[in-house]
Amino acid sequence: THLDGLGSRALAGPLWIGKLENGVDFIQYFDRAGNIAYRTASSLLTGRAVVEGDRLCQVIEGYLLDRPSCGHVYRNLSDPNHPDQAYAYVSVDAVKYFRVSN
Questions:
Q1: Strand pairing of 87-91 and 95-101?
Q2: For residue 58, with 0-12 CB atoms within 10 Å meaning exposed, 13-18 middle and 19 or more buried, which class applies?
Q3: Does residue 94 contact residue 18 with C-beta atoms inside 8 Å?
Q4: Max alpha carbon distance in the chain (Å)?
Q5: Can you give the pTM of this predicted structure?
Q6: SS3 15
Q7: How would you class 12 by CB atoms within 10 Å of its CB: exposed for 0-12, middle for 13-18, buried for 19 or more?
Q8: Shortest CA distance to 70 belongs to which of 49, 100, 86?
Q9: Cα distance between residue 40 and residue 36, in whole Å
Q10: Residues near 2 by Cβ (< 8 Å), separated by ≥ 6?
Q11: pLDDT for res 64
Q12: Do the beta carbons of residue 46 and residue 34 sit within 8 Å?
């Protein structure tokens, strides 16, 4: 099951370190004001994040026509392909497997 709004809010504050579904490494930073920075080897994006109900929504200027990309955060308990990643964020544009680092 996905994390509720409180659980998602607790994860939207530190640093996510993980892999996209296609195997690309990423790092995503959240500050307390709701700003985000996302980096892979070939991209650097900034935007804003907010928790709406049980979903984590992100808006990156110029990406997806400036529309929010929303999805649920799940505990990743049984995926043998991502054993180091405690969570999965599933949104319309990506599946991100990650661990939280402070």
A1: antiparallel
A2: buried
A3: no
A4: 35
A5: 0.82
A6: strand
A7: buried
A8: 49
A9: 14
A10: 8, 54, 72, 73, 74
A11: 78
A12: no
